[in-house]
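Subject: Sanity check before I submit

Could someone independently write out the structure tokens for this chain? I want to compare against mine line by line before I put it in a report. The sequence has 357 residues.
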Amino acid sequence: MDTLLMAVAYKAQELPANSVYQVLIGKRTATTLFFAFSNRITSLIGLYPKLTKEEWAQYLKEAANYPSLTAIYRHHAQPSFIQMVIEEILPLRDGLIISSSRQIYRQTLQLMMQVVSYANVHVRSYIPFVQDIHAQFLVKIWVNHVKNVFQYGLADVAKLIQDQLLIDLSRYPDQAAMIFLQQFEGANVPAVTLEQIAEIHEASKREILIVQQAITDDLWAQWLKGKNATPGQVLLTDFVNVVDTFFKKWNDSTNKTALMLKGATISVAEMANRRNLKPSTITEHFIEIAFSQPELLVNRVKAALQLDDVGVLLDHEPDATFDAFQARFGDQDYWLYRYWKIIYQKGPDGLWDGRKN
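---
Independent answer below. Compare away.
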């Protein structure tokens, strides 16, 4: 039995089974992503890409027989570990990140950590832990930026980043922080395979990956915010901004739409015409963008809804139905209704504060 999946099934019993299934296998339509977001299960997006409907139905059926999550945890070799993963770590995973970008985030972080680790002991010759050319390119850009803009030597960078990581990782359970660190290789720190880490913690490879993914996602989001202006925080924020410039959470098609939003405001029909896409595809992109960077759509929303300040949408709970929304704002596209729901749920304390626009 997959204890993790059984716990997911137990917690999802009140939700539409097929909708949750589409989330688990990673279907990325606007409808599925909005369902995941509105039900606060974006952490589950793409968690089981090879799961069949029959397997999911069986897990749901068996989950109904358990009196509690604790009863499910007892089936794991380490009940306290799986409880920590499900209740404390999994919710931190950002399932909105597409798999290719997630891989780049992971690899650039691994390589950056190796670079500063060896710089800390003044070793210049070593075999890169990550061979991917995109990751190597991005880390080289960052290293040059650090030297030219911040005027730091890499040995100084290593100490600053180490100190900041110790602070940042203190927010997580010790075992989870250790699993996160075990993915890195550096000077006097030998590489450890995923299989070895799983064996050490008596866990599955999937559970180990979830811990590493979730903490990486959470740290990445915190570094992008860059609110704590310590030297180490500034360096890490600069690092993730370099990577984010080239690799977004979403796919290339959505990113092209996002880039068009940064220019002069043109109609959805014109955007679709220029891209040889359906207008509905463009508005699906709008929804995906709104989950992460709603500010890109602010001017379009203000113009469509005739608002002086889009922040007023944060002060009022969204209308219960689309009909009520249209009664308030007139004949509007459905994506605008969803946009209101998204920024209202994100709230002023999210990654973006609508009151600033």
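---
OP: Matches mine. For the report I'm noting this point. The two ends are 49 Å apart (CA to CA).
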